[in-house]
């Protein structure tokens, strides 16, 4: 099973902040929060896959 990643959405969110000439503090904090949310989501999905593999074994994985 391939994890769902939000790489393109995360990149758009990052570019929203980084391309601003002078982003205010609120925008910077919001941008960091969004990036951490995407990272947390991806890591949780990898953990779930790893747990499934340890419980059922990789040979029982559904394609």
What is the compact description of this entry?
With 63 residues, the chain is mainly α.
Q: Give the overall average pLDDT.
A: 84
**How far is the first residue's CA from the last residue's CA?**
6 Å
Secondary structure category? mainly alpha
Count all strands and give the number: 0
Spans where pLDDT lies below 50 across 5 or more residues: none
Give the SSE order as H and E letters: HH
Shape: elongated
Largest sheet: none
User: Which value, in Å, is the CA radius of gyration?
Assistant: 16 Å
- Total of DSSP H or I helical runs spanning 4+ residues: 2
Write down the domain tally. Answer: 1
Give the amount of beta strand, in percent: under 5%
Note the quaternary state here: single chain
Report on the architecture of this protein.
The protein has one domain (7-60). The chain has helices at 7-18, 25-56. Helices cover 70% and strands 0% of the residues. It is elongated and about 50 Å long. With 63 residues, it is mainly α. The chain is built from 2 helices and no strands. Helix 1 packs antiparallel against helix 2.
Task: Give descriptors for this structure.
mainly alpha, 63 residues
List the topology elements.
Elements: H1 7-18, H2 25-56
Helix pairs in contact: 1-2
């Amino acid at each position: 099973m391939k994890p769902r990643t939000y790489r393109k959405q995360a990149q758009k969110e990052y570019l929203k902040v980084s391309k601003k000439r002078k982003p205010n503090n609120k925008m910077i904090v919001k941008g960091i929060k969004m990036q951490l949310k995407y990272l947390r989501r991806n890591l949780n999905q990898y953990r779930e896959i790893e747990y499934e593999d340890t419980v059922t074994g990789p040979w029982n994985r559904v394609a």
